[in-house]
Specification:
It is a single chain. This protein is an alpha+beta fold. It has a single domain, classed as Nucleic acid-binding proteins (OB fold (Dihydrolipoamide Acetyltransferase, E2P), Beta Barrel), CATH 2.40.50. Strand 7 and strand 8 form a beta hairpin. The longest helix has 19 residues. It is elongated and about 45 Å long.
């Protein structure tokens, strides 16, 4: 998947039903910190969620994984300041599969709630163990710790 240079913001959210319609809520921080302005029309892309590959081959359904992640994150974030926290922390190690490559050639993977992690020096389809090096509100960056065989 290519990420457009026109990308103004990136966040994870849920589709919710409201008044016979469906809504994806834009976090307030995207308007405060980003280039998004209230009242202007925007193109919106919806990406499929991804499951965490850290479960040793025992994958849950996407819905179960997201529900578990949301419950944990909701508890943490409601205690913190009422908004969702990134589902990763700096220094954390994970095993992931690189799903796409961005325009700059960096690998892209997604974890809980579709949260994006950029991994330099990787190719689409690679399975790697990564260490999260930097976490921002809407994206994280990681380095490869180990390259893994696909079925390992």
């Amino acid at each position: 998947m290519k990420i457009s240079d026109q990308l103004l913001c990136l966040f994870s959210g849920q589709v919710e039903e409201r008044d016979e319609s469906y809504v994806i809520e834009v976090p307030k921080r995207e308007l405060q910190l980003g280039d998004v302005d209230e009242g202007r029309p925007y193109r919106v892309a919806v990406l499929s969620p991804s499951t965490d590959s850290n479960d040793g081959g025992q994958q849950k359904s996407t819905a179960e994984t997201e529900r578990d992640a949301m419950a944990t994150t909701d508890q943490r974030s409601s205690q913190a300041h009422g908004s969702l926290e990134p589902p990763v922390e700096a220094g954390e190690t994970r095993t992931v599969e690189i799903e796409d490559v961005g325009d700059q050639g960096d690998g892209i993977t997604r974890v809980e709630r579709g949260f994006v992690v950029i991994v330099s020096g990787t190719d689409k389809g690679e399975r790697v163990r990564i260490e999260i090096t930097q976490v921002q509100e809407n994206v994280a960056f990681a380095d490869v710790v180990e390259r893994l065989d696909y079925y390992e």
